[in-house]
Every structure is written in structure tokens, then in C-alpha cells.
Batch of 4 targets.
Target 1
Amino acid sequence: MAINKPSGLLVHRSAIDRHETRFALQLLRDQLGQRVYPVHRLDKPTSGALLFALDPDSARALSQAMEEQRVQKTYLAVVRGYAEPAGLIDHPLTEELDKYSDHKARQNKPAQAAVTRYQCLATRELDVAIETYPQSRYSLVQCQPQTGRKHQIRRHMKHIGHPIIGDAKHGRGRHNRYFKDHLGAGRLLLHAASLQLQHPLSRQPLQITAPLDQTLHALLQGFQWLDAIPRQWHHSLSTHGDGPGPANPDQ
């Protein structure tokens, strides 16, 4: 079972957010009336395709496929600056431990291999001074992580000088605030757009697509970036002519 997780929803209960009462796992379990098993995770502020299994054997098979890099994950991100047309980020990452949920984890573990492929799909320059330059530049990038480290895409994009907009931990505060206050985009601009995998029982290829939410669709529409992505990634309401209005990046 695949869902399109909204930004701001936790996958399951976590000590990090003790006051949260809504979780993707419990919502899906209650909707289906049976137990579900998360196969992977998405950060709370990340939206997009999230896969669950309906039995333990399928969960183990899918988790193994993830570990063996037999599942292709494709993300969209809006980043600061003009990214290179394409690239491979091969930068090992030390594990980011949370003081609440990872207090029993091994400390000072060596850095683990982490690889992300990316492609720049579109760019935009705004006539607004946010930091030291009179204009501000942004890119729409497609990322395909080859490994599954915590916050991998967010940390890798920061590593090459193109932090994701809306990333409170790895991004740039002034740009994050501008997108929130002037463009109506106050969330992490990272979206898991698709999963390509083999069904664990039938072995048939599956492609799962998670359309953009209204916030991301409106931003890409305002930046004239929608033509840079597949039509099936557009917000679902847009096909009926009643999708969100465009953000105006020049105001």
C-alpha cells in the first residue's frame, strides 16, 4: 500500500514530537482496518510516496530490496543557487543522532557511504536581495539517492552549496523566511515524487507516483517550472482546472 504523505505528518510515533497525535501508520491502519508495516521512512517535513506492506514477509522482502538498492526513489527539491546540469554526490555521512530517539545508539560511528545522483531541471532568478547579492537564484533539482542515510538529500545538497529551501536545520534562514512570507511556501521543499520497484510476489515492475501538494504546485507554477516535470507529478486538482493559483515570485 502506497500513500502520498503530506508535509508535517510523522510516519509513526516518535519521542522527537511527544505532542503529536496523528501518524501515517495509525491513520492508514485505521483506514484499512488491519495492521500495516512501514517499509522505509520519510522525514516529517518531506512529502510524497511512502510505502507500506500488509504482511511481515512482504515487509522483509521490500526492506531488503531497499537495502540492496533495487528500489529507485526520485525526489524533487527547490534549492538555493544555480545547480550544475547534473552530478553525482559521493560524500560519506556520519550518523545524525537525536538526543531523544537515539540515546541508546552507538556514539561516534564512522561515516557511512552515501551517494546521490541529481539533475537540474530548471532555474529562476528573482529580482530581490535576500543576502549579499541584488538578485537571488534558485534551481529545481531531481535527486535519486543510491543509499539511504538519514537526511541524505538534505545534507548532500548543502554539501555542494545548494541547500534545500525550507530546511530549518541544513538550509539558510533568510531564504526560508522569504519563501514562507512572500511565496506562501513555508514547508521543506522536498518531495518524494516516485518509486520504481518490483512487486515482492508477482515480480512485476511497479511505478508509484505521488503528485505535488498545492503548495509545491503553486510555487512551480509561479516559477514557470511545471513543464520541467512529468505531467503525472502535477497536483491532481490541476487536471480538472481548479488547481491552486500561481505564486508571484516578483512581488
Note: The longest helix spans residues 56-67.
Target 2
Amino acid sequence: MPGQLLELTGWKLTLPAGQQGKPQEIVEPELSSFTNDFFRLNDGRDGVVFTANAGGVTTPGSSYPRSELREMNGQEKASWSNTAGTHIMRVREAVTRLPVVKPHVVAAQIHDAEDDVIEVRLEGEHLVVEYNDGDDGATLDPAYVLGTPYDLEIAAADGHIRVSYNGTQKADIVKSGAGWYFKAGSYIQSNPSRGDAPDAEGQVVIYALDVQHTP
């Protein structure tokens, strides 16, 4: 089961299924043994496949569907600030599928109570970390090949967010805030109104995922 491969005690899963505006959510302890078409082991049984379809159910705050983990603190939603302590997410993952018309998918985020703080997203072949509502960004890989695993580290501390890709720091973003939390998975950035078919998919495989918070 996916939960036996990844340590999921600190996460909640949101799926592109359920009722519009109220997508299905899976929490611990159910999450450790849960699997379906949107959240399953890959054929090699060494990664968890997150799949979101363009016509799927969305959260109230977004028009795009997701199969995505949200950081938790026990049964409570995680919430922290990069002005105190050090907060690091390390993930080994690969983007394996993109929708055809608008080939964009978000594979990792820092989010706050209102909006994304940063997004790691693939736009065609351009893998980028974006911030300030997409007005600013830094290239992680200008020619990413679908299915290629990469190691991502997002470290938030001292009013900075530093993003490393395959061991090399690619961005040092000066930004402070509170109410932050990590997310990882497949957050497709298209829907039928963008021209994609309802069954068009964004897909991400996560091989390893770890979050550390230190005072």
C-alpha cells in the first residue's frame, strides 16, 4: 500500500473526487492503507503515483483538481512561520504525465491560509519555482524530461526560502510569513474550460518524502 512506502503520519490527502467544492479527503490512520486510481503504487512498487484529472472535483479555493498531500501536525493542520526555526521538505519525485492543451502541473508547494507562497511546477519542459503569484520565479531545469526523478529540497528559515534541485541551490527567496505548510503531489493546472478533456491527467510519482522542523 502507498502508506507502507511513504511515512504518511504527518499528512492529509486531497483527491479529485467527491462533491464539487468538497473533495474527498483521507487522513490517518486510514491514509496508511488507502489506495485508489488517484493514489497508488507504481508498477515498480518503489514510488507512489499521484494522479489528478482535468475534469475532477476541486476545492472551494481553486478551479484546478489535485491529488495532493497537505502537511499535518497530528490531527491538526500544520502551521508554521519561517521567522522562527528551520522548516525543510525533501522529496524525490518525477513528473510523469501532463495534460495536452495546458501542460502544467504543480508538484510541491509552500502554502498559507490564503494562497500559495511558492510553487514548484512543470510547464511543458520548463521546471520552475514560482512565487509572488507567479510574477517571479527561478528555473530548476530548462529541459525537463517526463519521468526523470529529481531531488528537491525546500528550506524555509530566517525570512528566506531556499530551493535546491539535485543538490544545487537554485533560488534564495527573501520572503517571510506565518500560517505556512508544505504540500506535495499532483496539482494539475488545467480543466475543461482551458480546453483539456475531462480525463486529461497530471501525474507525479513520489519516491521519498521527509519533513523536518527544528526550533
Note: The domain at 2-214 is CATH 2.60.120.200 (Jelly Rolls).
Target 3
Amino acid sequence: MFSTSCHYGLQAMIYIALHSTKDKNVDLGQISAELDIPKHFLSKILQMLVKEKLLTSMKGPTGGFNLNHHPKEITLIQIIDAIDGLDVFTQCGIGFKKCNDSQPCPIHHDFTKVREKVKRLFQEKSLQQLTEDIKTGDSIVSLGKPVKRDW
């Protein structure tokens, strides 16, 4: 449903939310190594998120990336929009260009319902909710030991 860039962006944002603090940025190399994402590719994705003001970027010895907002204020749909745009939530499920309510493809009506549920999920879930699930062990994903944020 989403591009590889978008998947990497979502993963990186979760990682940054877990490993940054108000005074500590997360290094591009660290994110790349931990998530096994090519560094150059990840750099381009993170710069898109900086441009959309979801992240901040600092150069120098203490540089790296940090969230530009509290994790509870960043929803997954914002990350998706910054990288892929929201067309994925209006496109035909099997790729027909002229598929719509008046000219539906064979799965149009079923897919529209599913697509709306997925969109709502990404609108409602914040980075804070995901990081809390990881910290409490409700999620099996392992992204290293999280730091304690001081928001």
C-alpha cells in the first residue's frame, strides 16, 4: 500500500521518538544501522520529514535528528502525507485509472471500506502511542533500549 520510502520513514520516526530527548539528537548512521536502511536513502527520506517540519536536523558533533513536536502530536498520517501523499487513500485497489463510485472496479465498494478503516487508523495513531506499546512490550518490535523523554 505504501512505498518503501514511506515504510522506512515510519520506522525511522518511531526510532527517533524512542531514542531522542529534548537535548539528544539521533545520528543518521545509528538509525541506518539499527533499522538496516541504506544511509543515503534514509537521509533523503529524513530530509523530506525535516522539510515538512516533523523533524529537526542539526549538523556537528551533537547533530542528528529529533522530533519537531511532542510524539503525541505527530500522527502516522502526517508522516505518510509527507512522504507518499494521501493519494493512496483514493486510488483504485487494483490500479484502474477511471475507478470511482459511478464507474467502480470489481472490488471498489469493498476496498473503499477497507481503505477508510486503514486511513482512520493512521489518523488516530500517534508516535507516542506506538512508542508506549514498544516500551511496555505490547509490540514485539525491537528497536534498542529507549531513552526517557523529558517532554
Note: Helices lie at 4-19, 28-35, 39-51, 76-83, 108-124, 127-136.
Target 4
Amino acid sequence: MRQLSFMLTNVGILITGPGVIMNAILGAFSQGKIKNANPKIVISSDKANAKVLKDASAKYGVKTAVIEYAGKRIPDDLFPDEVISNNEKISWKSNQHIQKELEDRWENYDKEIARVLQEHDVTPENGLVCLAEYRLLLSNKLVHLYKNRIMNIHPSLLPSFPGWRDTIKNTLDYGVKITGVTAHLVSDVLDAGPTIAQVPVPIFDDDDVGTLRKRMVVEACKLYPYCINLFASRRLVIEGDRTCGMEWKEGLKGDHDAWSYTNYLI
């Protein structure tokens, strides 16, 4: 069993989306909900996020940067979206089609991401990189450089519905009744890194992609800061492909047999 050992965590946030989850993370820092950590830098892959970054800098005093991806973009139809297992190793069905592109991603983009992170003291030794609505695949070199120090949040209860192409739509189309959000550490297999915590979100008969996404984002904005705090407080233990450290409600007093999700359904 190995416990992450460091005193203070420096956090870097990567975004491509509108910054909703980023603001939730920075807000949790400003409210003192995340201990033993400092937000150091927010990096956007899109200059269209200039106002989002400016507002975050003004409100929270965090440094920001835009690093636009100038390399070859992986076509949407090659994004991994189907997971298969041979009982020994989980792999992505379309993974073989994008290996060269992922290698190029390091030279054309991720190497600069790593440089800026470390320039702001978010290092492989003391840092945590948070993907907050980040929609670019990471190169294996960046994942290995920050091994077990890159966190992501995904709009499903992994390992169900991995990938990001139409994830919420696929969940609705499949007809499941409960979905959720999953916080996990990033590995070199997409959405298959160690799970940190999950929160269920019910699906109602009148839900569409928009209404379901809205409720899931609300839960993600609460779960992500919790998991960052878990990591920074050295309460997250990694055992192989598993993590330990999630505490359920204090009122259960360790009586696991007393816990039931249906206790909270009214």
C-alpha cells in the first residue's frame, strides 16, 4: 500500500469548456474547503476563453494562460468510444488508429503544457493537474510524467459509458435509470484510471440531454473539490488500480451494513 507523501499540493487546471467546474474548484479554494493546496495556474486550450480566464484571475487571483493546440487534431470518428476487455487488460477498440497522433500531441502541445505547469510550480513531485471540462486527449508522455497526479471528472458511472462523444445522449438512449459522475485519476487508457469517488444521478422520464447534463454538472461541481481536498489532505491511498479514502456520511459511524442509497430517496 502506498500513500501519496507531500505537505502541500500545487494545483493546475486545464480547461477547454466554459469554465463552470473550474469556477467551482476555485470557489472551493476561496471558501477554505480545500486544505493543504494552492491553485497556481489555469490553462485554456482555446483563446475564446479569454473572458473566462480574465474573470477567474480577477475574482480568485489565479494565474492564467492560453496554449492553443497547433498540431494535428484527431478526427472525431477516431476518438475512442468503445471499451473492450480480454479479461486481462482493458483496451480501446479504436486505440490503434490514434497512437501516432498521441505521440505527436506531446511534441506539438503537451510538452508546452508541462513546461507552463512546472513554470508555475505544479511539478510531478508536488502537483495535481485537474482536467475541468477538458476535451483533448492527453499524450501518454504527459500522463506518465504526472503519474497518479492528473484528476478528471466524467459524466457517467464508469466503467459504464466511457469516452466523451455523446456520453450523456448514449446514457439516455440506453435507457438506464441511474447515471452519475465519476472522479478518477488519469491513466494512459481513456477513462480507465483508478476511481476516486462517484455520485449517482437519477434519470427521469422527461429528461433530455440538457436537463440531465445540468443536474450532473451540479454534482460534479461538488464532487471535484471534495476529491481534490481528499488528495491534498493525504487521505487518498492508491493500491494498484484502486484507490481508498472515500468517507461516507459520518452518521453511519462505520456501520457499513446500515448504508443504503434508497435511504436517501424520498
Note: The longest helix spans residues 209-232.
